[in-house]
Structure formats: C-alpha cells, structure tokens
Amino acid sequence: xxxxxxxxxxxxxxxxxxxxxxxxxxxxxxxxxxxxxxxxxxxxxxxxxxxxxxxxxxxxxxxxxxxxxxxxxxxxxxxxxxxxxxxxxxxxxxxxxxxxxxxxxxxxxxxxxxxxxxxxxxxxxxxxxxxxxxxxxxxxxxxxxxxxxxxxxxxxxxxxxxxxxxxxxxxxxxxxxxxxxxxxxxxxxxxxxxxxxxxxxxxxxxxxxxxxxxxxxxxxxxxxxxxxxxxxxxxxxxxxxxxxxxxxxxxxxxxxxxxxxxxxxxxxxxxxxxxxxxxxxxxxxxxxxxxxxxxxxxxxxxxxxxxxxxxxxxxxxxxxxxxxxxxxxxxxxxxxxxxxxxxxxxxxxxxxxxxxxxxxxxxxxxxxxxxxxxxxxxxxxxxxxxxxxxxxxxxxxxxxxxxxxxxxxxxxxxxxxxxxxxxxxxxxxxxxxxxxxxxxxxxxxxxxxxxxxxxxxxxxxxxxxxxxxxxxxxxxxxxxxxxxxxxxxxxxxxxxxxxxxxxxxxxxxxxxxxxxxxxxxxxxxxxxxxxxxx
Amino acid sequence: xxxxxxxxxxxxxxxxxxxxxxxxxxxxxxxxxxxxxxxxxxxxxxxxxxxxxxxxxxxxxxxxxxxxxxxxxxxxxxxxxxxxxxxxxxxxxxxxxxxxxxxxxxxxxxxxxxxxxxxxxxxxxxxxxxxxxxxxxxxxxxxxxxxxxxxxxxxxxxxxxxxxxxxxxxxxxxxxxxxxxxxxxxxxxxxxxxxxxxxxxxxxxxxxxxxxxxxxxxxxxxxxxxxxxxxxxxxxxxxxxxxxxxxxxxxxxxxxxxxxxxxxxxxxxxxxxxxxxxxxxxxxxxxxxxxxxxxxxxxxxxxxxxxxxxxxxxxxxxxxxxxxxxxxxxxxxxxxxxxxxxxxxxxxxxxxxxxxxxxxxxxxxxxxxxxxxxxxxxxxxxxxxxxxxxxxxxxxxxxxxxxxxxxxxxxxxxxxxxxxxxxxxxxxxxxxxxxxxxxxxxxxxxxxxxxxxxxxxxxxxxxxxxxxxxxxxxxxxxxxxxxxxxxxxxxxxxxxxxxxxxxxxxxxxxxxxxxxxxxxxxxxxxxxxxxxxx
Lengths: 534, 534
Fold this sequence. Notes:
2 copies of one chain form a homodimer.
Chain A: H1 26-30, H2 38-51, H3 56-60, E1 67-68, H4 86-96, H5 104-108, H6 114-127, H7 140-155, E2 174-177, H8 179-191, E3 197-203, H9 207-215, E4 219-224, H10 235-247, E5 251-258, H11 270-282, E6 286-290, H12 307-313, H13 327-330, H14 332-335, E7 338-343, E8 357-362, H15 366-378, H16 384-394, H17 404-430, E9 435-436, E10 445-446, E11 449-452, H18 454-462, H19 467-479, E12 481-482, E13 484-485, E14 494-495, E15 501-508, H20 514-532
Parallel strand pairs in A: 1-12, 3-4, 3-5, 5-6, 6-7
Antiparallel strand pairs in A: 2-8, 7-8, 9-11, 10-15, 11-15, 13-15, 14-15
C-alpha cells in the first residue's frame, strides 16, 4: 500500500501526491534545527502524560515535572516562570483596551500609574490602534526611540568619546522585526545571491544561523571559538577559515558574531571587537552582530560594548584596542557594513511571545535599504505588541517617574537571580566527575563539557544516536530536564584516545528551582557514569 | 565620488561596499510590491506635511487629510477607524495584565464580563504567559478550537451532509501563523523545489503571491479571471494556462485561488469550486485556498463555501455541482492536497496589527507535515496576541453568555456598514463617465474599470509612468485618496483602438466618510477626463 501513511488517507487509487519528501524544496529537507527536535518532542510527550495523571505511562516516569532548559523562554510556566515587568504589562493592557484610561473606577483605584497611561497614549497617538498595520519598518515614534537608545547606550559605554553625536543613529536605518530571528532571516536572504555565497558563523552557534544558511542554500563557513579562553573569538582562526573557503571558490560575504555568546555565554572584549572590525574591513565582510543578550551581563570585568560603538570610534584619532590607527583605519567607521540585532525576548524582559526585535543597518547602500524596506513591506509589519515591547525596552521609566523604582527593583531582581543561578550551576557542574563549564559572562546559558567513557559511546552507536544526543535523552528520561546536545550548535563530540569522548550540552540558567535542578542532574550524571564506566 | 550616496558615508577611499544592488540576491531585486510603492510613499509624505501645519508644502495641498484606501487596514486612524470588538480587547487586556482579574476595584466596577475573564483564564492556562513562546505550531488549545470551528462552519454550510463528522479537522494539521501571509510564504517555500516549478495565480491577484514567487524564483503561471462574469474562475482558461506552461517545461504544482476575491470581490459558487477541485485532481495540483475574506459576504445569493467542505463532499454518493460522480471522483476527498488560509486581519475583526492567521493542511503527506513543523520551529512561534486573536475569531461568545449580544451587535454593525459603503461606492462609480465596477459579493474592495482617452495615455508616457499609475498619482495629488493601480495586481491597462485605454484600480470600501470620499473622487475624475479629453 504505497500511500498507507498518507494523512486523512485511505486511498487505494494510483494517485501520486504532489508534495512528498522527494518533491519538496531540498534545502528545506537539509535544514537541521536541534533546539526543537526529538528531545523537545519527547519532553512534550512527557509533559502531556504528566498533565493527565490517569494515563498509565505517567506512573512509570521517575519525575513529576518537565524542566524546559532547552530554550531561552524565561516566562514559561510552571518551572521557569520569570515574572513580567509590571510597567510593560500595564502599558500593554492600556493599549489593548484604551477605555481603561478613562474608566472612573479604574482611575479612582489608581491601578495604572501616570507614566504608564502617558506612554500608552503616546504610543496610540502614533499607531492609532494595536489592531492596525503600522509602517512596514515599524512605527516611526518607536524607531526614533530606538535611535535615541543606541546613541545613549554607546555614548555612555566605557571609553566612549565625549561627543554623544559621534554615536548617533538614524531611525530610517532601523527596522522593527518579528523577534530578532525575523530580521536575521530577511537580511540573510538579501545577502545570499547565489549558492557560492558563504557566511561565516561561530562554532558553537545558535542554530538559527545554520538553518537559515541551509534554507537559502548558502555555504556555511565555520570558525571555532576558543573553549580554553572563555570561548573568545580568535581572529586568526576566523581568518584561516575564511581564506580556506575563498580558496575553494566560496564568496564569503559576512561574519556572524553572537555577543554575548549563545550557547557559550562569553562577552567579547572591546579590543577583540576592534580587531574583528579591522579584519572585516580588510577582508570586505559584512558584520552580523547578534547582540540580543546585551542586557544579560554578569561580570563588571567584561561589560557589553556594541559593535556600533567600536565601529564609530574608528573615526577618532585615539588609538583603539591598544593599537595606533592609520589614516586608512580611521575610514573604517564609514565603510564597514554592520547589522546589529536586538530583541525583547531575552535580557531581563524575556517577552518572547510578543515577537519583538529590531536591527540597525550601518553604512549600507541606500538602494539596498530600499530593497530591505520593500521586502519588509511584503510581510506588512511586525506585531504591534512586539513593537510596543521595543518601545518599552529602549525607553524604560526615567528617574523621578512614578514607575521608576518598581521597574528598577523588578529588573535588578531578575538579573541578580539569573547571576546567582548561573554561578550556582557553574560551581555544581565543575564539582562533578568529568564535567567542566566556563562561567557565563553574559547571556542565559551554560555550555558544560562532559567527558564520557567508551562504553557510553558504544551504547549510543548501538542505538544509532550521536553520543551527546544519547546522553541528553538519558538525562530527560531520568530527570525530566530537557537540554540541547552540543552537536545541535555544531559542536560535535570530540573523540579521545581511550575511545571515550568529550561532549557538550547547553542548558539555560532559567530553572526556578535551581537546587532541585542541580540535584536531579547530579544524580543522573553519577548514575550514567556508573552505568557505563569501564 | 564613487560612494557619495552611501548612507552615513563621507568616505573617499577606494573601499567597495559588499552589499549593493548589483551584488544582492537578484530575486529580491525582481520582487514587485505595488500595495506599498511610490503612491504609498507619496501619501506618507503628504500625511507628514499635513501633520506639521507650519511647513510650507501643506498650504499647497488641496485636501486636509489622507484617505488610505490602498490597504485593507480597517482600524487605521483617523479616516477608517473601525472600532475593535469589545470582547476581543477585554480578553487581550486581561491576558496582558492578569492581576486585573483579581483586583477588587475592577471586580466591583464590573468592567470585565465573566466570559471575558473565563476566556482569559482558559488561554493563560494553556500558554502560561503572553510573554512566553508557545508550541511552534501555536498553542494546542487554540488549534483545537480552530478544528472545531472548521467542522462547525463546514457542517452548517448550505447543502452540507448531515453527519458533522464528515467535516472533521485535525488540530495537528493546523498551524497558527504570523497573519495569513506568514503561512503563504512558508508553504510556497516548501513547494518551490527548483526554478522550473510553477504556481498558477489569478489575474488580477493579491501581490503577495507574485512577490513570493519572484523571491523564491519560481515560475508565475497567470490565469485570467473573467471580468464580464463577476470575475468568476473559468476552469477552461485556467487549464489552458497550465497546459501552455507545462508544454514550455514548467512543473506546475499548485493553483492559488482567492475566495472571496482580492482585489475583485467575487465569491465563487459551490459548483465552480467543485469543478476546480476535480480539475486539481485530474491535473495533480495542490490547491492554495486563500479564504481570509470568508466572513466578508454581502449577498445571500452567494454564500461562502470553503474548499475543504467541497473537497470532503466528494466522498459522498450524491451528485455535486450538478454533476454525477464517478468512483474515481469519490476518491478526490482523500487525495487532493489542499491548504486553506485564514486570518484575523480581515472579516469584521480587522485586527491586522496582531499578526494572527492559520492554515490547515488537508491530505498532506505526514513526512511533509514534519518538515513544515520544523520550519515553523525555526521562527519559534507566532505572536501570542495573534494566536489569542485566532482563538477569539474561531470561538466567539455563544448565545446566553454575557458578551454575546454586544458581540453580535458590534459585528453586525461592521458588516452592515461595509455593505452599505460598498453599495454606495459601487453605484457612484457606475454613474461616472467611463467608470464601471462590479458589485462586491465579498471581501473589502472594489475594482472599477476606467476608460481613459488617448491624451491621458500620452501624458503618462511623457512622465514615464504606466497610465494607471499616472491616474492614481493624479488622484492622490488632487484628493488625498490613495488607491492601487490595477497593474499592481497584474491587471495591465488594456489598449483600445482609439489610442485610449481601459484601466483598473483597487479601492478599499473602508473609508469612514464614504460620501466625502465619493465626492472627492468624482470631482477629480471629471476634471481628469476634461483635462485629457480629445
């Protein structure tokens, strides 16, 4: 029965379906996306089984909840459950139902502070209604606020020159997007002109990048981050990868940098960024700066510095990154093409479900800006609540405003909690046999290395699985904790001489019950090692 | 100065930018998107000038407001300003700020009816928080409601068989999307396996389709709707287009049908749809049914009937569309691959800014469903407020519930208003010299034909513009009314023997001040004809 597996189907004719694995776009078939793969599906099945306690499989599960440590989804219920910022949700509710602003009972009860009401009115003055399409680049008042935010952020960064105008941003070069990923996909599509185009991505990387390159049939040029130096970006290693690809005929056009790093949590130094910018200029490469974790910084020794700030500083006379500048280098500020991405999904806001992001294009040809705008128009506009999220992200309550103190308290609490959890998990990992992890300087993840014995490798082979998948599936089965194997980020297990491997996995630092998380993981890891010990 | 036009740029070096019109993806360059082109940009400029009355250009404008009749954006302020449904916004506000549900003052003031509170709780029980990512296909409870809606809609359609189970839908075959357009783009990408793949689209068409086909480098197979029969779909004409394309080596895989029609407002008869389904089966074509206007129906003589309903009816013994069925035909129900799209942006809801939509896949290979799911995962999930919009669309307040009457009153008022405006505009158009328009059976648009004299054609040529663009730009300059020329929908001006043309434009029927709209348009049209009369 050729079509016995067809959905809805009980056909016995000779009809051949049009759309089959063999006939669809082969580049879609090639896309790999590990963050939501077999592990995530199995975790969903367990969660459903736990939710209906009458069903028999539940009784066999050795845990009573699923901890989704596989995705940076801070507000997920019930085991992460980061609380939204009160000011955000007040403004959002008022824009949804503006009559609340004029309701006598609501006013009398002082449910909404004056600055939330003022902000809702300001936003509605521009967008009219959250039910209307906005300008395809995003509401113009919000893009202006983004430009002000960028200038303010960069002019108050460490070692910024005095003149704030040096860090100006143009609202017309800013596009609001459906999360940062919407912008990444759009710009990759612009850049990839033929199958010979290559884009350099870090290994390990966030799989959006490899997936998008597969989808648009571009060449993936991999460069390895340095695990023995806090996953820093080694420009020489990057250069070697790019030269090798170019020798093979690949038209390498851009370098993706994720800073702070995902999955690796490093935060690049200003000198490292300056070297990268110089390199991009010398090699004619567009810089894709994924800076969505810029607010997730856990160590004052390594503050976040934006690519835009470093780029603009090249126009200054002063030396940079410890090196003197040539006249040629001073032109870098006006020549290197840079895209910077930001998002409301991460940081201390964690508002993933609104799908809000933006990118800024720096030094891009205006005709190309026109093409990007045209493509944004085809998708009409990003969701208005996502855009409003961007407005709130870039323009939080100011000192003296009624919501200022609560906003500060809530956001500081979230950041401190994340840092505590990260430190606790990092310490616990490093006390376990065969596990070592770098401290997270930023972002929402730890990426521990795990040494596994040969018998574990053999057991994985027997099941036809990558050994890191095998380990993570075993972890899920034993603990209900769902993480992502390193191979999902392009970081494959490294074979050792003794037949064992060094493998990686990524876990978020978002689990509410950190101690229980660690306890469950530790027990699993010890039992796993005992089971497969030689 | 080679780079004098470069954004941010005052470089004088020999640096060659990486990203230029010459180097980007050529398929992006080829995309045409008329709904937001020169006309829309000029309208934006006028709107800005009107908003700052001190600036000099305003004084010269012969109108005091812009009427955006170019996009179906019902809630746009100030000239369309369709009011959102109260129930929708109550539920949305409660999901944004759940503490409102428990606030004593809010409860005492009875601001939120019990069914809005219950719905908000039900939604939050599933999604946890509007700030969290959902399942990539959309929240599971909402997809279940969509499946119930489809079954209910189809089993209560005219001439439906008695057994509601015949019209069942599977929540696992339903994907929530970022508006309908997000789904269209995703599925086109799946279908387009190589540059020889072709998709048939109606002429005139909604430019999302031609733009998406250009972007993914597929062949556009055009089939003409019949203007002299209310823009009905002539299956013979469609067949001729497809056969011609196949003779030329095009692998035609799918037919797009927009029903009710955009820009043309027709609503297909059940017999017409049945013929199309037969044809799709005989020719192995996937049916792309764009049914986003299914709630915008203005004549009881032509009710909306879904493709899914007609498809499922093929499994019945009864004759269909007036024709008896062969055994072969009865298998159609389980064999023709159908995608149906729906949206919250149109209908009487008009909630464009939330970006909510869904599609249902019928008779698709389960492996292909897996690939579609994988691709949905790369984009994480559609906005939660868009998903909530879908929940409210498919599950409105039921009789007996507190919000039922208000919801009915509001939605009926919107539909009646749309019908009134449509009728008024249709009548006015047909009274003008050289203008004729079909009545809208459905959707949000009129697509009048305009006969222009040779001198108008010559004047357009002199300015290097298409004559319909020339006419629409003149309309904007004279009246502030922004519409879209027929060529933007692929319907080119038709040259006449006398050197004149018959051209088309699309206007929405959304303008709040319909009489003023008509008056402004009439004066312009008469003056335009007088100016260019031979």
